[in-house]
Amino acid sequence: MIQLKNVQKSYPVGGGSLPVLKGIDLTINEGEMVSIMGSSGSGKSTLLNILGILDDFDSGEYYLDGKLIDHISEKHAAFLRNSFIGFVFQSFNLIPFKNALENVALPLYYKGVNRKKRNVIALEYLEKVGLKEWAEHMPSELSGGQKQRIAIARALITNPKVILADEPTGALDSVTSYEVMDLLKQVNKEGMTVIIVTHEKDISEMTQRLINLHDGKIISEPILV
Amino acid sequence: MFDFDKWNEIFETLSKNKLRTFLTGFSVFWGIFMLVILLGAGNGLQNGVTKMFQQDAINTIWVFPGTTNMAYQGYKSGRRIQFQNADYDYIKKLDGTEYTSARFSVRNSYATFGNKGAAFQIDAVYPDNNYIENCIQVSGRYINENDVKEMRKVTSIGMGVVNELYKDVDPIGTYINLNGIPFKVIGVYTETTPNEEMRCYIPISTGQRVFAYNNRLENVQMTTGDLSLDETKALAEEIRENYALTHHFDPADRRAMYIQNNIEQYQEVLDIMTGIKIFILIIGAGTIVAGMVGVSNIMTIVVKERTKEIGVRKALGATPFSIVTMVLQESVFVTAFAGYIGLLAGIALLEFIGPYIQSDFFVNPEVDVNIALGTTIVLIIAGSLAGFFPSRRAAKIKPIAALRDE
After folding, report:
1. φ, ψ for residue A6 (rounded to 5)?
2. How far apart are CA B174 and CA A124, in angstroms?
3. CA angle A63–B323–A46, rounded 5-degree value
4. Which residues, other chains included, contact B328 with Cβ-Cβ below 8 Å and sequence gap of 6+?
5. Residues 6 or more apart in contact with residue A138 via CB below 8 angstroms
6. B129-140 burial, b for 16+ CB within 10 Å, e for fewer?
7. Closest listed residue to residue B365, CA positions, set B375, B373, B355
8. A93: distance to nearest CA of chain B, Å?
9. DSSP code, position B74
């Protein structure tokens, strides 16, 4: 599903440049659930941004679902994000003035699905994450766990190839963290590829493979299950 | 072009962010509102001045005799100059004059009809006086050439006279007594100023005969057609030199004769009006610029406030183009709507307040709807330009930066 070949990325700092990724080789198969761990500054956020086509890289190759992602236009990147990737963020990033249903339906708006149809689909996905009766609630009226489940429903609604979750449990207590992880595991069980960036060991242990990142390089990839 | 879903999204965003929408709209509303008021006030001032000059034809020259102040050709100073019919004949033949008249006012004049009577001005004039005074005929006719030629005892009376002496009687065809002598009423006129309606005009020849003025005149008037200001000044000088010759006074003697050149006064007022217009234009331009800056400021803040939202939208698949158009369409819609409301409010205020603040110098503060619409469109375009740069910056937001939690 995902293949990285010697991907390098550095950020310009002052006069020179600061290398963040120093040659990443990584393969993630379809239906896998992996976690990426690393201390801060290890390059895990940069890696996630590259995987999510939110940022470009300096050299190397990135294949997503067999397609080479390299120097594509912003517009095409937006299209690929919309159809291939579902994002889940640490701070949920729901749009505060839209209710749960509208938040879940938003990716379909950018896909060009009409309002009526996308609301029907959004309701299906809300049901899937167990929040059907919260459809009309604003994000401010929901708990952290509920918000994250809505965010997951939003990530799933375009039926993407990969779910990219950036510290999905970072803002949650352990009970709700496990609930969210259960949901992600269930999604994975249905065949979705899930990639989770985390710094919590117990969260990473729930995935099938752990990718340890240190100083811009993968130092180990132990298989957990 | 018309994307219903997109507008839906925009309306939703606007209605759920009421304060932001209100603040953006208000600066535009206020800009247009003030502009309309300003333009209206400027027009009111101009209308007032124009109306003041409409009392009489604008392009008139009045010539009054005076008393000499210099000894000349053996004549002592302090001699009174008396105009005569020959002075009028000279004006009439002069190149450059359009309508010409001369007049005298009958002394101790009064008019009676039936058992009513009052003191009214009785002016003996030529038919062209109609154009010089800008009389508006209500009924009947004005004095004509034949009245003068045949010394008919006829009169054209003002509405003021009619209101005072006639009650439920059509004055046309009646005989009114002017200083005891019956004149047939042939016409009724109105004027823009009430005191100029309190007059009875009679043919000059009749007046000179009946009231024993012989060939004497009190003053002569003319309109100057489309002569320029400089040409009318030259004309006035020519008249002065001719009259100096025939009446034996020094042309340099400014008290022997007075020339009132209305076009000169009008030109001065026109210059002031031009000044006021330029002033209003500058303030108006300033208002528009202030509105633009206001919109652009607010759009910048809005984009900053929405950085995270825009980042999320981009992560979910919004193209840069859709972000630009979203921000732009919002700003254009708010600007257009608020601008239109400002336009209506300004016009409504002028309509309702206008009639209560009329004065000699301030009449009918109104706004040319085309100009007002034009400025609104300018502001809308300016508003969208002002919204464009922040929106382009918004489109360039990297989702990563926007979504970072720090």
Report:
1. 50, 50
2. 96
3. 35
4. B384, B387, B388, B391
5. A96, A97, A98, A99, A100
6. bbbbbbbeebeb
7. B355
8. 7
9. T
CB B79, CB B237: distance < 8 Å: no
Q: Is the overall model pTM greater than 0.90, yes or no?
A: no
Please give the DSSP secondary-structure letter assigned to residue A55. S
Residues of B in contact with A93 (CB under 8 A): 308, 311-312, 315, 403
What CA–CA distance (Å, rounded) separates A135 from B155? 90
Amino acid at site B118: A
Q: Check: CB of residue A148 under 8 Å from CB of residue A92.
A: yes
Cross-chain residue pair B308–A55, CB shorter than 8 Å = no
Bridge partner list, B154: B184
- Residues of chain A with Cβ-Cβ distance to B302 below 8 Å are none
Q: Identify the residue among B316, B322, B404 best suited for mutation to test binding to A, counting A beta carbons within 10 A and taking the highest.
A: B316
Any bridge partners for residue B116, and if so which? B113
Provide the sign of the torsion angle of the four alpha carbons A54, A57, A63, A68, taken in this order: positive
| Contact criterion met (CB below 8 Å) for B260 and B61 | yes
* One-letter amino acid of A34: V
Q: Where are the beta strands (DSSP E) in B141-271?
A: 154-158, 175-178, 181-190, 199-203, 216-217, 219-223, 257-261
Name every chain A residue with its beta carbon within 8 A of the beta carbon of B5.
109, 114-115
DSSP-derived secondary structure letter, B187: E
Residues in chain A with CB shorter than 8 Å from the CB of B316 are: 81-82, 87, 106-107, 110, 154
b/e string for A24-43 if b means 16 or more Cβ within 10 A? bebebeeebbbbbbbeeebb
SS3 B64: strand
B28, B383 Cβ separation under 8 angstroms = yes
Question: Which residues of chain A neighbour B315 with C-beta distances below 8 Å?
Answer: 52, 54, 81, 87, 93
Comparing CB atoms, the residue among A87, A110, A114 nearest residue B318 is: A110
Cα R_g (chain A), whole angstroms: 17
DSSP single-letter state for residue B196: G
Which domains are assigned to chain A?
A: 32-42+74-220 (3.40.50.300)
**pLDDT 10s digit of each residue in chain A, 225 long?**
899 999 999 888 888 888 889 999 999 999 999 999 988 878 888 888 889 888 888 899 999 888 888 878 888 888 999 989 999 988 888 988 889 999 999 999 988 888 889 999 999 999 989 899 999 999 999 998 999 999 999 999 999 989 999 888 888 898 999 999 999 999 999 889 999 998 888 888 999 999 999 988 888 888 876
Inter-chain touch A154–B316, beta carbons under 8 Å: yes
Chain A residues in contact with B403 by the CB 8 A cut-off are 89, 91, 93
Question: In 10 A of CB B18, how many CB atoms?
Answer: 9
Distance from CA of residue B343 to its chain's centroid?
A: 22
Q: Which of residues 7-36 of B touch A (CB under 8 A)?
A: 8-9, 12-13, 16-17
